[in-house]
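Researcher: Please generate the 3D structure of the following complex. Treat every line as part of one assembly.
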Amino acid sequence: MRYFCCITALLALAGLSLRAADNADKFTSSTWYAGTGPRTQIWMLTVRGNSITGAVCGPCDDPRSLAPIVDGRVIDANHITFFILHDLQGGLFAQYGPFRNEARVTISGDTADFNSHLEGEAWTSHPVHQNWKLLSKKPSQK
Amino acid sequence: MKKKHVVLPIVLMLVGASLFAADIKPEDLQGKWIADSGNGPAQVFVFEIRGDKITGVTCGPCDAAHVFVIEDGSIKGDQIRFFILHEDRGEGLAKYGSYRDAVTGTLAGNEIHIRWHREGGPENEAPHGEMVLIGPLRLQALPPRPAPAPQPPAR
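Model: Done. Output below.
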């Protein structure tokens, strides 16, 4: 009976680790949005291997709202991190000059929890929180 | 007519042409460009220039479903080249899977004449096309409006 329990537990652990490994590479290029109306922010994330680049804008026909996403990476299936580059413009550009916001995103199905702050400072420095909704994601390649 | 009288004007024309095809400066391109097709929403291109690299977005209409990333752009002389990324949305996604539009353009004054087709595909196979962009529009933050002058006291 003891052997049976051990084997069952080992199989369950193996299954869990396989599932985790399977999920680890499941964050794919995708588009997310936050907010409503004309000021909806649109987050376009491009995944190449483990790295993430992209852009955020909103309203997207306003050049002042555009910022590139750089130096991002997939942590695991549910967590990503990246930087929002404000080297040309942006809310705090006049005050700080070129700066970046560090962002961490926790993904849960078709929604995500976005948090960012000013790079190099505490997470209480200019914190931004958004609830993201998935617009579309890259279809799985056959 | 002597031969040198023919050669000299040609040389001068070539020199003049090369001057007109001057290198694009970042400020020539940076900002918002609009292509009005006449039917349907205008297509907007927002370019950001860092060195000789072009990035940005394009949209039309500019809602979440119709915004695409511009990447891997470059400038050479008066020619620009960039790619529009369609990894999760796009006209050709169902047929081709993820793809990029390869776009080439020529800047002339306040116009950019662009042509595009699917990267790696034939130039005349959909999705493909050409358009004229007009710009750049640079939106500056407006200064605060002056406070209204105080009204004279009512008598």
